[in-house]
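One-letter codes give the sequence; the fold follows as tokens. Both lines appear below.
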Amino acid sequence: MTALRERVAELTSEASDGDVTADEILVHGGSLIALGVSSLATMRLIAAVEVEFGVELDLDTLAFDPDDFDDLVRHLAERGARAADG
């Protein structure tokens, strides 16, 4: 799950236009809002994750907390998402 976590951190940084680095996300995890990720960036992240991993994340069902980085990664792993090798 480490590769998945790293890739989602990269996508999160990209979605925030670099306001938060992947390293900051990996070190702190948890609340994206507390890290400075805006709600718009979170929506961009959800869209990027859906494209990257070929999954649909239905925010209406609330199967995960979209503000919680670690919960998002856990949810993706449970759905079978895998980061591409190298």
In short: The CA atoms of residues 63 and 75 lie 8 Å apart.
